[in-house]
Amino acid sequence: MPFARLIGHYSRMSLLLGSLFALSSCGPDMIYDATREIPDTGWAYDDPLAFSFEVQDTNKVYNLWLEVEHAADYKTQNLYTKILTAFPDGHRMEETVSLELANKAGVWYGKCDGKDCVLRVPLQSDTYFNQLGSYELGIEQFMRQDSIRGVRALRFMVEDTGRAR
Predict the structure, then answer these.
(1) Are strands 29-37 and 151-164 parallel, antiparallel or unpaired?
(2) Which among 71, 94, 105, 109 is least buried, having the fewest CB atoms inside 10 angstroms?
(3) What span, in angstroms and rounded, lies between the C-alpha atoms of 157 and 35?
(4) Burial class of 104 by CB neighbour count within 10 A (0 to 12, 13 to 18, 19+)
C-alpha cells in the first residue's frame, strides 16, 4: 500500500475512532464511582461500607448518588442507613436516612430483572463542597436486626454537573 494511501487510511480510522470515543464519553461526568459488595451471609450492623474521594474544585456543583442493589425478595420496603461523613478538616457529620425501595403496595421503585433490583437514589442534588481534599463517606445499615439479607451491593457516585455555584 503506498504511503500516502496508508496515511489516508489511518486518518479515516482515527476520525472514526475519535467519533466513537466522543459518543461513548457523553453522559454524566462522575468524579467518583465505587461499588461495595455485601456478602450473601448478610450486612452486619457493625460492618460499615467505606468510600473515600477527592474534591479538587469548590466552585463546581455536584450530585451525590447512592445505588442500591437488592434481591427481588428483600423483606422490607425500605433500608434504614446511617451515613457518616468525614470532611478534610476532620469535622464529622452523621445522619440517619431511610432509603425507600418500594411503595406501600410492595412494588419496587428500581429496575428489576426478576431476581435482583437496582435503585438509584439521589443523596444530594446541586450541592457543593466548601473544602478541598479527601472526604470519607461511611454507610452503616441501621435496621432493627444485627444482619440483614438481600442487599447485594451499594454504589456511591459523585457527579460533576458541569455548572459552577
Answers:
(1) antiparallel
(2) 105
(3) 9
(4) exposed
User: What is the spatial distance between Cα 137 and Cα 87, in angstroms, rounded to a whole number?
Assistant: 9
Note the pTM of the prediction, 2 decimals.
Answer: 0.82
Edge-to-edge order in the sheet of strand 116-127? 29-37, 151-164, 60-71, 116-127, 111-112
Residues across the chain: 165
Could you say which DSSP state residue 102 is in? Answer: B
**Which of 91, 108, 93, 104 lies closest to 150 in space, CA to CA?**
108
Got the DSSP string for 82-97? EEEEE-TTS-EEEEEE
Q: What is the pLDDT of residues 78-130, one digit of tens each?
A: 999 999 999 999 999 999 999 999 999 999 999 999 899 999 999 999 999 99
Query: Phi, psi at residue 138, to the nearest 5°?
Result: -115, 135
C-alpha cell at 77: 420496603
- Rounded CA separation 106/62 (Å): 32
